[in-house]
Amino acid sequence: MVNDNLTAKNHTARTRTAQAGTAAALVLSALALAGLAHADGRTMPKVTGRGLVDAFQALDYDTRIRFKDGRGAGRHVLWPASWKVCGQQPAPGTPMKGRQITLTVVKDEERCADGAG
């Protein structure tokens, strides 16, 4: 009986983890497609101060993006809709062809390190 309960709990935990991973993959796929419609691929737009979903939509769909936790805690972005952009590298107006960009992000309810947002 105890082993059955443990097996059921482990199965439930694995199912929830798989569902969360699938949901995150679907969100990122949708964002990539949304970015395609807004991509110009010429220069880096200003995305600082925007929500992360809005920032994705402003970028070229094939842009390589690296996220940096603005709190310095090394957290990973799993649900983009709950994060906002505090900083960006390169600066707005910089040619983007073949460049990786870095977005410094925090959770929506947090303040950016510079006190803005």
Structure class: alpha+beta
Integer average pLDDT: 78
Coarse morphology? globular
Major β-sheet annotation: 3 strands, mixed
Gyration radius, in Å: 18 Å
The number of distinct β-strands equals: 3
Cross-sheet strand order for the largest sheet: 1-3-2
* Fraction of residues in β-strands: 15-25%
The poorly predicted ranges are 33-41
Describe this structure in words.
- This protein is α+β, with helices and mostly antiparallel strands and 117 residues long.
- The protein has two helices and three strands; from the N terminus they run ααβββ.
- It has helices spanning 2-38, 52-58, and strands at residues 64-69, 83-89, 100-107.
- A three-stranded mixed sheet has the order 1-3-2, covered by helices on one side.
- α1 packs across α2 (52-58).
- The longest helix has 37 residues, at 2-38.
- It is globular and about 60 Å long.
- The N and C termini lie far apart (52 Å).
- The model is unreliable at 33-41 (pLDDT under 50).
Spell out the key features of this protein:
3-stranded mixed β-sheet, alpha+beta, 117 residues
Task: Explain briefly what this protein structure is.
This protein has 117 residues and is an alpha+beta fold. The protein is 38% helix and 18% strand.
Question: What topology emerges from the helices and strands here?
Answer:
Elements (H helix, E strand, L loop, with lengths): L1 H37 L13 H7 L5 E6 L13 E7 L10 E8 L10
Parallel strand pairs: 1-3
Antiparallel strand pairs: 2-3
Helix pairs in contact: 1-2
